[in-house]
Specification:
The protein is an alpha/beta fold and 162 residues long. Helices cover 20% and strands 40% of the residues. The chain has a single domain, classed as 3-Layer(aba) Sandwich (Dihydrofolate Reductase, subunit A).
Length: 162
């Protein structure tokens, strides 16, 4: 399985604004919890800060940062060497989830086999965007579609073709 990216994005790939998500949907949060529970999650420093430096429960939390992160909780670790981490885990049987932010998604996108994207059929004001990718290089499966608060959500799984 190796690396999977998971995100909720708008029509224009909107992710966040002012270090917060632009979309907050109950069903998307539930989907995120179900997919990442018991797994390793990789995030950047700003995502870590947006979580108020609190690790996601039931997961191993890895924070990619050049900063010295003092006194991390037991379930969180600083990811120091990205290249060796990618080499070591690129053929891992474990599915490792990249959960943001935008620069971390961009770093891992070439190494990710699967993208779990909740695609919101709405636009939002954002200052952070999911990286562009060639959809034609992926097989798309819509896992489910629903409407929450009058907004349509498509829970899509993109698998990179070999």
């Amino acid at each position: 399985m190796s690396f999977s990216l998971i995100a909720c994005i708008g029509k224009n790939r909107e992710l966040g604004k002012d270090n917060d998500l632009v979309f907050h949907f109950k069903e998307d949060m539930k989907f995120f919890r179900e997919k990442t529970k018991g797994k390793t999650v990789v995030m950047g420093y700003n995502t870590w800060k947006s979580l108020k430096e609190t690790p996601l429960k039931g997961r191993t939390n890895l924070i990619l940062s050049h900063r010295d992160l003092n006194s991390l909780p037991e379930s969180a670790k600083r990811l120091e060497n990205l290249d060796s981490f990618i080499k070591k885990n690129s053929t891992s049987a474990e599915e490792i989830f990249v959960i943001g932010g935008a620069s971390v998604y961009k770093l891992f996108l070439p190494h990710a086999k699967t993208l779990y994207l909740t695609e919101v059929e709405e636009e939002a004001k954002a200052d952070v965007f999911f990286p562009t990718f060639k959809k034609e290089d992926y097989d798309l499966t819509t896992l489910k579609s629903l409407t929450e608060n009058t907004v349509k959500l498509n829970f899509n799984k993109y698998i990179k073709r070999s």
